[in-house]
Amino acid sequence: MPETRVTIASEVGLHARPAAAFVQAAAKRPCQVSIGREEGALVNAKSMLAVLSLALKHGEEVTLRTEGAESDAALADLADLLARDLDAVS
């Protein structure tokens, strides 16, 4: 199962708007997607409540993991999404 570390780029962290963009992108993927801190359990990245419960801040490094169909492409695309300031996306 592919896994990578990525730094949250959104200036105010992964709050409602950037989290929604990330969760929507994850939900479009056929594979399982998980996100979390290195020291904590990973949560379902397709769940808005689970992602918001992490309270991820700007500059925080997270683990992103995918498993199943198209997992490599999903991992690359979702990591790229988190590495951008999603508040700047219109």
UniProtKB/TrEMBL annotation:
<protein>
    <recommendedName>
        <fullName>Phosphocarrier protein HPr</fullName>
    </recommendedName>
</protein>
<dbReference type="InterPro" id="IPR050399">
    <property type="entry name" value="HPr"/>
</dbReference>
<comment type="function">
    <text>General (non sugar-specific) component of the phosphoenolpyruvate-dependent sugar phosphotransferase system (sugar PTS). This major carbohydrate active-transport system catalyzes the phosphorylation of incoming sugar substrates concomitantly with their translocation across the cell membrane. The phosphoryl group from phosphoenolpyruvate (PEP) is transferred to the phosphoryl carrier protein HPr by enzyme I. Phospho-HPr then transfers it to the PTS EIIA domain.</text>
</comment>
<keyword id="KW-0963">Cytoplasm</keyword>
<dbReference type="GO" id="GO:0009401">
    <property type="term" value="P:phosphoenolpyruvate-dependent sugar phosphotransferase system"/>
</dbReference>
<dbReference type="Pfam" id="PF00381">
    <property type="entry name" value="PTS-HPr"/>
</dbReference>
<dbReference type="InterPro" id="IPR001020">
    <property type="entry name" value="PTS_HPr_His_P_site"/>
</dbReference>
<dbReference type="InterPro" id="IPR000032">
    <property type="entry name" value="HPr-like"/>
</dbReference>
<dbReference type="InterPro" id="IPR035895">
    <property type="entry name" value="HPr-like_sf"/>
</dbReference>
<dbReference type="GO" id="GO:0016301">
    <property type="term" value="F:kinase activity"/>
</dbReference>
<dbReference type="GO" id="GO:0005737">
    <property type="term" value="C:cytoplasm"/>
</dbReference>
<keyword id="KW-0598">Phosphotransferase system</keyword>
<keyword id="KW-0808">Transferase</keyword>
<keyword id="KW-0418">Kinase</keyword>
<feature type="domain" description="HPr">
    <location>
        <begin position="1"/>
        <end position="89"/>
    </location>
</feature>
